[in-house]
Design brief:
This protein has about 120 residues and is mainly alpha-helical. Helix content is about 55%, strand content about 0%.
Length: about 120
């Protein structure tokens, strides 16, 4: 049973291992075989970080500027020993909440109450 019954992540696990061996270009190619569950550019930066190419990962994440990229950038900067800068780039709670997707409430049933979770 590959990857403890999580075959859908087999390419990501392989990509992670390849990046750890310093084979980032190959890792990025392998990771692209899985349907993206995150921005592929962030996945690429994560693989760069895994390979120890922290400056390259930081540059890629800075260029994105999204909330998710800034969260990842914070971690990279901490690994580089740049905690003050990491704190300054990390998104605030207000920014994170504003970026969350807003779900439409489920329509009420016949009784006037929603039958969809959360109840």
């Amino acid at each position: 049973m590959p990857h403890h019954d999580h075959e859908e992540f087999q390419h990501w696990w392989r990509a992670w291992a390849l990046a750890g061996l310093g084979r980032v270009d190959e890792a990025i190619t392998v990771a692209a075989l899985d349907p993206p569950w995150t921005d592929p550019r962030i996945a690429e930066a994560t693989l760069l970080k895994r390979a120890g190419r922290l400056a390259d990962a930081a540059d890629a994440l800075r260029a994105l500027g999204t909330i998710e990229a800034r969260q990842e950038l914070c971690e990279v900067l901490v690994l580089q020993g740049r905690a003050d800068e990491a704190i300054s780039v990390h998104p605030t709670v207000a920014e994170q909440r504003a970026a969350e997707s807003k779900r439409e409430p489920a329509p009420p049933g016949e009784s006037g109450y929603s039958s969809e979770p959360p109840l």
